[in-house]
Amino acid sequence: MSEAVPQNAGYMVAAYIIAAVILVTYAISLFRRTRGL
Amino acid sequence: MTLAQKGRWTTGVGLVLLAAVYVRALAFTPVERLQGAAQKIYYLHVPAAIWTETAMVLVGVASIFFLFLKDSRLDSFAAASAEVGTAFATIMLTTGPIWGKPIWGTWWTWDARLTSTLFLFFLYIGYLLLRGAVLDPGVRARYSAVLGICGLCLVPFIHFSVYLFRTLHPMPIILKPSSPSLPGPMLATWLFSVAVFTILYVGFVMQRYALARAREGAQHV
Asked: Which residue numbers of A have CB closer than 8 Å to B's CBs?
């Protein structure tokens, strides 16, 4: 008998959101700091 | 086109491709049977970890050459790579515990891999604080180079810690002597993500390096 796949998609969504926020925030920070260069 | 502008374009392309990684990972990559959807955190956690460690290796190598050659461009590159490495380390240290909670049943454990990785993060923070605290450019570059070389020495220990100690952290399933243990579609998604994180690292460093060079030029005016 096969076991059910664990239902933990919420953790995956949280991790993907946090990674996107960090990368986009850092990209915006660099965009602002290098404006005019 | 200036280096900062090239960096902005590279970062922009990287962010668009990151969105494609998200679509591929979430919608077109199979769910692992034992771990469930949480396994997909792997496609962000491992590329971020690879570039956290690689960025510190590059900081260390640039620092060694700086101490011999006294070329301020090497110091600027080390500063740029350290800041970008800190951003990737933050991703690694947040996505890791989020994966650990449903799979291990705990957010954190003080095993060799996790503890040494946290130490690397603190080393990154210390490096950035040191650069902000020392005003004299020559002294700052020399002290930073020493700390960068310490970071370089730590990276092999982190990588091999899963072999040297009993740890809860999984063994490598791709970066190991034998062939990867990941099925084809999952491996393709992972390789795609590593490529995109590489583009983002390059784009970020180009911009940060341009900023460091501009600051260096302003100090000599």
From this structure: 3, 5-9, 11-12, 14-16, 18-20, 22-24, 26-27, 30-31, 33-34, 37
Return the exposure string of A4-27: e unless at least 16 CB atoms fall within 10 Å of the residue's CB, then b. eebebeebbbbbbebbbebbeebb
Tokens of B220: 């000599």
- CA-CA distance, B21 to B40, in Å (whole number)? 11
| pLDDT score for A2 | 63
What ipTM was estimated for this complex?
A: 0.92
Would you state the structure tokens that stand for residue B140, as one six-digit string? 């700052």
pTM of structure? 0.93
Report the half-sphere exposure of B189 (CA within 13 A, side-chain side): 25
CA torsion sign for B36, B41, B47, B49 is negative
* Spans of chain B below 50 pLDDT: none
Contact A8 B48 (CB under 8 A): no
Tell me what pLDDT residue B180 has: 73
Candidates A26, A31, A33, partner chain B, best to mutate (most B CBs within 10 A): A26
